[in-house]
TrEMBL record:
Keywords of this entry: Cell membrane, Membrane, Sugar transport, Symport, Transmembrane, Transmembrane helix, Transport
Organism of this sequence: Anaerococcus hydrogenalis DSM 7454
Stretches that traverse the bilayer: 45-63, 75-95, 101-123, 135-155, 161-181, 188-211, 217-238, 250-269, 281-304
One of the record's GO cellular component terms: membrane
Protein name: Putative 2-keto-3-deoxygluconate transporter
Length: 315
């Protein structure tokens, strides 16, 4: 099984995520028995696992190499942030909150703001450098619901809450400090990131209902196309032509995270005006999660073969 997962780009994440989604769809209450089982096998474990991997991966972030990470992943993620704000504000100004083609502003902004840090980690492990893996914590900042909520709030001129962003930065900073003060600790924590990847995939998959995703149908497919067409070409051009890098980071951040499915409900709780469209948004985003989780690794495999980028041999 392990050999099979390693053959697929991002397989350490993707296979557990799809298996978990099957359980979430056809036996949603199977693991809801409280205590340890529920914490490990349901969405209740997402925050802990993401926080832990943010900490563990950051211990490998050498301050001497921080400039390189900020130059590459930092600038790429900054570009994504700028694009999200720009496209989000533009969408609301042109189409309003109700949107177009059955895709609301809530759905649109949540989707384009999303990235799946676990898939980024898996692809970086397969095709990137150790510095690329160490940058996982930066991608975690954009993974949390706080980011799309921030973009949506600014685009709609609503009140902003910075607390969720700060909560992501704390384990990253602690990891950097510990890893740089004690290199033995960094070496000890580093391998755990790979071990935790399947568990993170499972946690994300536990929030995906495949039947609800399929019900989104046409709008979910259109949303996926919009996600790729608006974000990928610009970011890929920037990474390849401006930064002169291999393009793997762009592929790594070009997938919608399962955690994004929770965003419409979170916003609806604080803004009753979007409650009616939140359920539709959830279904459309869920289909986007499923499609991008399959399409992005396939595209990555095609691209790496074409470019002659071989898989890393490290465990």
């Amino acid at each position: 099984m392990l050999k099979f997962m390693k053959k697929i780009p991002g397989g350490l994440l993707l296979i557990p995520m799809l298996i978990s989604a099957l359980f979430a769809t056809f036996a949603p209450n199977l693991f809801k028995v409280a205590g340890i089982t529920e914490a490990l096998f349901t969405t209740k474990g997402i925050n802990y696992i993401v926080g832990l991997i943010c900490f563990l991966s950051s211990t490998a972030l050498d301050l001497k190499k921080l400039k390189k990470v900020i130059r590459k992943q930092g600038s790429i993620l900054l570009l994504k942030v700028i694009l999200c704000f720009g496209f989000g504000i533009l969408f609301i100004k042109i189409f309003g909150l109700s949107g177009v083609f059955g895709i609301s502003a809530l759905t649109f902004i949540t989707a384009i703001c999303s990235l799946n840090p676990s898939l980024y980690l898996a692809l970086s492990h397969d095709y990137g450098s150790e510095d690329d893996e160490a940058a996982f914590g930066l991608t975690g900042i954009l993974c949390v619901p706080a980011f799309p909520i921030l973009v949506y709030s600014i685009a709609k001129a609503s009140k902003i809450d910075w607390t969720p962003v700060i909560s992501v930065l704390i384990p990253i900073i602690l990891g950097i400090i510990i890893g740089n003060l004690d290199k033995d600790m960094a070496g000890f924590f580093g391998p755990a990131v790979t071990i935790l990847t399947p568990f993170m995939g499972w946690a994300f998959g536990a929030g995906i209902n495949i039947i609800d995703a399929v019900k989104a149908g046409f709008q979910g497919i259109i949303l996926t196309l919009i996600f790729y067409l608006l974000m990928f070409p610009i970011i890929f051009f920037f990474e390849r032509k401006i930064l002169k890098e291999n393009g793997i980071t762009t592929f790594g951040i070009s997938s919608i995270a399962g955690l994004s499915v929770s965003v419409p409900a979170i916003i609806a709780n604080s803004d009753p005006s979007v409650a009616a469209m939140s359920q539709t948004a959830i279904a459309q985003i869920a289909l986007g999660v499923v499609l991008t989780s399959i399409i992005t690794p396939i595209l990555t495999g095609i691209y790496t073969k074409k470019m002659g980028i071989e898989k890393n041999k490290r465990a």
